[in-house]
């Protein structure tokens, strides 16, 4: 494994073979993907911390300075610097929006998409709540991030995970608590303003994985998303919330082994 910093982005690179790029969601990091590594053998796995998340530097500017387009540009630039010309992209939550825009904008770069907890953009009713979380993180600092982490664990993981998978729940909480509060706030603002990519222009195979208890990417919304894609397969995992790769790692591994082309 090696870690590089590309224009302020922390990028972890593991293995050899065809390129596979992983994009985490809001409050996530490269470690969102660690439980899925057994299914990624035979690939060069590139895990990117998005701008302002985890170990990556925030973009310059105040409130409203980060948006989905800037995240897409940062990922594309990192791929260019790493000589990635064609890759499978894995995304979680907000990272699925980044992946969709990248696939629509640069179709030659993306060979297929595996999206976990996928959403095209927040529903209008949810946008004020995401913005309120941004305001809370920006004003409250580390103490606010602890409150946000506890709320996310309670609201975005399945009861089964909270009762039987303490390590997965701890990783969700730790991932959020370790975020820079201002970077997290800017990411929330970007998500609150996110708009849908032109899904109808995405021609590659797409795997959509959600949980039956995922309130962020509920099955009905993911089904509507699938109907806009040309080649989509949707899977709903039982007793699973929004943090799919952590709550249901073994099931996600099995789905990826079936979906990924042989290296």
UniProtKB/TrEMBL annotation:
What molecular function does GO assign, one term? hydrolase activity
Among Gene3D superfamilies, the record links this protein to: alpha/beta hydrolase
Q: Which residues form the AB hydrolase-1 domain?
A: 20-246
Query: Which residues are the signal sequence here?
Result: none
| InterPro entries the record matches | AB_hydrolase_1, AB_hydrolase_fold, AB_hydrolase_sf
Keywords annotated in UniProt:
Hydrolase
Q: Which Pfam families match?
A: Abhydrolase_1 (PF00561)
Q: Which protein are we looking at?
A: Alpha/beta hydrolase
Q: Give the species.
A: Pseudaquabacterium inlustre
Give the source lineage, highest ranks first: Bacteria, Pseudomonadati, Pseudomonadota, Betaproteobacteria, Burkholderiales
């Amino acid at each position: 494994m090696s870690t590089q910093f590309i224009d302020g982005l922390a990028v972890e690179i593991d293995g050899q073979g065809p390129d596979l790029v992983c994009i985490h969601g809001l409050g996530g990091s490269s470690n969102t993907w660690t439980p899925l590594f057994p299914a990624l053998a035979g690939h060069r796995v590139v895990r990117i911390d998005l701008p302002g998340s985890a170990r990556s530097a925030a973009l310059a500017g105040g409130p409203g300075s980060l948006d989905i387009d800037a995240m897409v540009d940062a990922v594309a630039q990192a791929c260019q610097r790493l000589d990635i010309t064609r890759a499978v992209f894995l995304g979680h939550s907000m990272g699925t929006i980044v992946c969709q825009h990248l696939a629509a904008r640069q179709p030659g770069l993306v060979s297929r998409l595996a999206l976990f907890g996928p959403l095209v953009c927040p529903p209008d009713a949810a946008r004020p709540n995401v913005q309120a979380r941004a305001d809370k993180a920006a004003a409250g600092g580390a103490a606010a991030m602890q409150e946000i982490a506890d709320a996310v664990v309670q609201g975005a993981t399945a009861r089964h995970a909270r009762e039987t998978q303490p390590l997965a729940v701890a990783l969700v909480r730790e991932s959020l608590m370790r975020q820079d509060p201002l970077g997290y706030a800017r990411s929330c603002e970007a998500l609150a303003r996110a708009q849908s990519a032109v899904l109808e222009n995405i021609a590659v195979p797409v795997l959509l994985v959600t949980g039956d208890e995922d309130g962020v990417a509920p099955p009905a919304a993911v089904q509507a998303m699938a109907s806009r894609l040309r080649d989509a397969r949707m899977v709903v995992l039982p007793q699973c919330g929004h943090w799919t790769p952590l709550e249901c790692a073994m099931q996600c591994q099995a789905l990826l082994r079936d979906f990924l082309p042989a290296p």
